[in-house]
Amino acid sequence: MALAAVHFSLKIPSAVSLWAPLRRPLQLCSRSYAAHASLSYEAIKQQYRPEVPEYFNFARDVLDRWTEVEKEGKKSKNPALWWVDGAGEEVRWSFEELGELSRKAANVLSDACGLQRGDRVLLILPRVPEWWLVNVACMRTGTVLIPGTQQLTARD
């Protein structure tokens, strides 16, 4: 048995030979690692100055930006959310659809429910598309999502 495994492994090219054509310097923070290879971790850490915005909202700054790129036709038609259940039923939302639906859900949270930035939202749902929708809506409103398992009871 061991002999067969050795014989089989001899037919497989090494990982180095498979990936050699794709090799390029490791990119760290959009800089080449090779340029910093001689530096110590502490030296790199002292030089690194990330650009941190004063305010950041993932829904607005990332998802809405992808919506714009999608509308401009500069992005492939991959969905923002592609959910498939055990029976094979699918839900696909583009970035535009996810943005529109999450803004509606955010309005429900802030207007109808009266929730404000920093308030907590305990969400007890299975992992269905609506779970992700409420997650993004909480990001938009600044409320804090607390994902709860379906096994929680009133006593918990």
Summarize the structure.
With 156 residues, the protein is of the alpha+beta class. The chain has a domain at 58-148: Rossmann fold (3-Layer(aba) Sandwich), CATH 3.40.50. The chain is 45% helix and 14% strand.
Features:
single chain, alpha+beta, two-stranded antiparallel sheet, 6 strands, 45% helix
Topology:
Elements: H1 2-10, H2 15-19, E1 27-28, E2 31-32, H3 33-36, H4 41-47, H5 58-71, E3 81-84, E4 90-93, H6 95-112, E5 120-124, H7 129-141, E6 144-148
Parallel strand pairs: 5-6
Antiparallel strand pairs: 1-2, 3-4
Helix pairs in contact: 5-6, 6-7
How does this model look, in words?
This protein is α+β, with helices and mostly antiparallel strands and 156 residues long. The protein has a domain at 58-148: Rossmann fold (3-Layer(aba) Sandwich). 45% of the residues lie in helices and 14% in strands. The chain has helices at residues 2-10, 15-19, 33-36, 41-47, 58-71, 95-112, 129-141; strands spanning 27-28, 31-32, 81-84, 90-93, 120-124, 144-148. The protein has a two-stranded antiparallel sheet. Strands 3-4 form a two-stranded antiparallel sheet. A hairpin with a 5-residue loop joins strand 3 (81-84) and strand 4 (90-93). Helix 5 (58-71) packs antiparallel against helix 6 (95-112) and helix 6 crosses helix 7. The model is unreliable at 1-23 (pLDDT under 50).
